[in-house]
Design brief:
This protein is an alpha/beta fold. It has two domains: about 20-185, SPOUT methyltransferase, trefoil knot domain (Alpha/beta knot); about 205-270, Helicase, Ruva Protein, domain 3 (Orthogonal Bundle). About 45% of the residues lie in helices and about 10% in strands. Strands 3-2-1-6-4-7-5 form a seven-stranded parallel beta sheet. Strand 1 (about 25-30), helix 3 and strand 2 (about 50-55) form a beta-alpha-beta unit. Helix 3 (about 35-45) packs parallel to helix 4 and helix 7 (about 115-125) packs across helix 9. The protein is elongated. About 40% of the residues are buried. GO terms for molecular function: RNA binding; tRNA (cytidine(32)/uridine(32)-2'-O)-methyltransferase activity. It comes from Paraburkholderia tropica. Its main location: cytoplasm.
Length: about 270
C-alpha cells in the first residue's frame, strides 16, 4: 500500500522535471561495462535518466551482466541508454554542452569547477537540451571532442592522486547539477549572474554550429586565408571564440550567410 504522502511529494517535485529530463549524460567510448552500469546508478540516484553512449567498447553494453550488476536497481536507465557512433550524433539537438576534463587544454574554453559550471548549465537548460560529456577511462576526451563542446569543467581533486573513476566523476557532476536545479526552483534563491547570457531568442544547436564551422572553413579556404595543408590552429581558435559567445540560431545563420556569399564570389571570380 502506498504511503499517502508519496503522491504529495511527487507532485511537489513535478516542476523540476524539465531540467532533469532535458539533460543528457554522454560517455564517450567507455571501456568497462561496470563503469557504464555504475554511471546509470549514479544518474538515477540524482533524478536523471538520459544516458548516451558513444561507441562503447562492448557494443551491447546495456545488456552486459557486469553492467547490469553495477547498475544495482537502475536497470531502466541502463536499458534505455542511447548508443551512437560519434559525439556529434550524441550532441544532436543540444544547445549547450559541458566537457569534463582532467587536464588544461591549449585550445578550448577555460575549465570551471563543477559547482560553477552547473550554474551555467542551469541557465542554458531553459533554452533546450544540454549535455554533460565524459571521456574514456584511460585517455579522457580528445582535443577534437573538447572543441565540439561549449564549456569545460574540471574536478579539483587531490593533485597527488587525482584519478577519478568514470562513474565517480558522473556522480559528482550529477550531484552538483541536482543541487543547482533544486536551488533554481526554490523561491527566493537566485543563481549567480556573472557571465550569464540572457536572451529571448533560441540558441543554436550543436549540429547547427557544426554545420556553420564547415561552411566557414570552406569559405576561409576559398579566400586563401586558411591553407588546408597547413591549417595550424585557426579553426580551433575560432571555435574557442564562438564558444564564448553562446551563439543564437540567427547569429549562426548570419555567419553561414557570409560564408555562402564568399563561396559564391570565389566561384564567380574563378570563371
Amino acid at each position: 500500500m502506498e504511503h499517502p504522502d508519496s503522491h504529495a511529494a511527487e507532485a511537489a517535485h513535478e516542476p523540476l522535471r524539465g531540467g532533469f529530463t532535458s539533460t543528457r549524460f554522454v560517455l564517450v567510448e567507455p571501456s568497462h561495462p561496470g563503469n557504464v552500469g555504475a554511471a546509470a546508478r549514479a544518474l538515477k540516484t540524482m533524478g536523471f535518466s538520459r544516458l548516451v553512449l558513444v561507441a562503447p567498447r562492448v557494443p551491447q553494453v546495456h545488456c552486459d551482466p557486469e553492467a547490469v550488476a553495477m547498475a544495482s536497481g537502475a536497470d531502466d536507465v541502463l536499458a534505455a541508454a542511447h548508443i551512437v557512433p560519434t559525439l556529434a550524433d550524441a550532441l544532436v539537438g543540444s544547445s549547450w554542452s559541458l566537457a569534463l576534463t582532467a587536464r588544461t587544454r591549449e585550445y578550448g574554453p577555460p575549465p570551471a569547477a563543477p559547482r560553477l559550471a552547473v550554474q551555467d548549465a542551469c541557465r542554458q537548460v531553459a533554452h533546450g537540451d544540454i549535455a554533460l560529456v565524459f571521456g574514456n577511462e584511460r585517455t579522457g576526451l580528445s582535443n577534437e571532442d573538447v572543441e565540439r563542446c561549449t564549456a569545460l569543467a574540471h574536478i579539483p581533486a587531490n593533485p597527488a592522486y587525482s584519478s577519478l573513476n568514470l562513474a565517480q566523476a558522473v556522480q559528482v557532476l550529477a550531484y552538483e547539477l541536482r543541487l543547482a536545479y533544486l536551488s533554481a526552483e526554490t523561491p527566493g534563491v537566485a543563481l549567480p549572474t556573472a557571465g550569464a547570457q540572457e536572451t529571448a531568442t533560441p540558441l543554436a544547436t550543436s549540429d547547427d554550429i557544426e554545420r556553420m564551422y564547415v561552411h566557414l572553413e570552406n569559405a576561409l579556404i576559398a579566400l586563401d586565408f586558411l591553407d588546408p595543408a597547413n591549417p595550424k590552429k585557426l579553426m580551433s581558435r575560432l571555435r574557442r571564440l564562438f564558444a564564448r559567445s553562446g551563439l543564437e540560431r540567427e547569429e549562426v545563420n548570419i555567419v553561414r550567410g557570409i560564408a555562402k556569399h564568399i563561396l559564391l564570389k570565389s566561384k564567380d571570380g574563378a570563371k
